[in-house]
Amino acid sequence: MKKPHPIIDVLHQNKLFQNLSQHSHRLNQINLALQQALPADFISRCHIANLRDNTLILHTDSASVANLLRFQSAELCQQISQQYELNISQLQIKVRPDHPQSATTLAMRQASPLSTDNAALISATADSITDPALKNALAKLATRVKSS
Asked: What residues have CB less than 8 Å from 101, skipping those under 6 apart?
């Protein structure tokens, strides 16, 4: 039986993976330079997503931060271009809100309790439903009453 090759050897032999690894490493380096060039308030709210065709693509979590970055785009392009001997001609800024919560975080979060009035309305609605699955789901939901 043939002994499997270590994954690192396979990755080093594959040209596509080498290019991807180099590109990723370069983006990380440029991201560090960006973090140093940004105002302190923006550091945790902005990161490099890609560098393609002399365009540096940034992601931020807020439209207001994106607008402020757009005002500084020429200066940021110049600083990063000089530091890494690149010809960045354009900064493209995209708003990407925080990543959705993970399934474990969502599972840990408990459902908000219902007021007595809302529970009564949901229960009445459940009584008038003919679909058994929906009726059971609404009845179960109606039991989540806020304790007074």
From this structure: 109
**Count of structural domains within the chain:** 2
Residue 67 and residue 119 in one domain: no
CATH number at residue 18: 3.30.300.180
Over residues 3-15, the mean pLDDT reads: 77
For the stretch 41-81, pLDDT in tens is 888 889 899 999 889 999 999 899 999 999 988 998 888 88
Flag whether the pTM goes above 0.90: no
Give the separation between CA 81 and CA 34, rounded to whole angstroms.
11
Domain containing residue 133 = 110-142
**Within this chain, do residues 91 and 115 fall inside the same structural domain, yes or no?**
no
Task: Report the C-alpha gap between 46 and 31 in whole angstroms.
Answer: 9
Residue 105 inside a domain? The answer is no
Q: What angle do CA 44, 50, 54 make, to 5 degrees?
A: 120
Q: How confident is the model at residue 101 (pLDDT cuts 50, 70, 90)?
A: very low
Kindly state the tokens that stand for 20: 């991807």
Are the beta carbons of 24 and 17 closer than 8 angstroms? no
